[in-house]
Amino acid sequence: MSDQQPNPYAGDNGAPGSPGYGYPPPYPTAPGGAGYGYPATPPAPGYQPTVGGAGIPAQAQPPVMPPAQPPAYAVAPHGAGGSGLSLGDITIAGDQIITPSGAMPLKGAMWNASDFSRTETKIPTHAVVLAIIFFLFCLLGLLFLLMKEKTTTGYIQVTVTSGGRHHSTMIPAVDAGTFPWVMNQINYARSLSI
Predict the structure, then answer these.
(1) What is the C-alpha to C-alpha distance for residues 106 and 162, in angstroms, rounded to an integer?
(2) pLDDT by residue (tens digit) across 62-84?
(3) 26 — phi, psi (to 5°)?
């Protein structure tokens, strides 16, 4: 800079001055010599760490005995619940409904099913190819266009609510008979829930 325009930020000796108003002060160095942005060595703990309980006296333990023969299961009384029924990840066992989110009481359960599947009917590719080939020979080749193929895609949603809890599962629809099968299972589950 020239003498006519002195540096307004210079100190008395012409060097840049120390930070003033609006500038952060320099960071002090950490006690380990590490500066800002470098990890400091952790302080020594105020206690003596132990390794795996070393130096701690062991409690007196009774000798470990092999487990006894498990008791025989009692026969469930009549009307105590359903046999094994499973719809997706919902299972009825005894007087409980077991789901991944926990067990619910079977008595008083509300069951619902919603059909989110669809069945499409289309002419298969091989029927179109055969119709084109045989159309050249005779008009009977057009009968191949009467071939139909049904495909079912989608899911059936099964919902159960009991004991203040709610769980829903999706069962893939493999054909047009999947929804009636699920409804039969749900009607059986409803009869057990009464």
Answers:
(1) 7
(2) 665 555 555 544 444 444 555 67
(3) -65, 150
What distance in Å separates the CA atoms of residue 112 and residue 87, rounded to the nearest whole number? 12
Q: Is the Cβ–Cβ distance between 99 and 178 less than 8 Å?
A: no
Measure Cα distances from 168 to 30, 63, 97, 135, 179 in Å.
57, 47, 12, 52, 16
Rounded distance, CA 117 to CA 112, Å?
16
User: Which element (helix H / strand E) includes 113?
Assistant: strand 110-122
Read off the amino acid at residue 91: T
Record the pTM: 0.51
Which sign, positive or negative, has the C-alpha torsion 106, 109, 114, 115?
Answer: positive
Give residue-wise pLDDT tens across range 83-125: 678 888 999 988 889 999 888 998 999 999 999 999 999 989 9
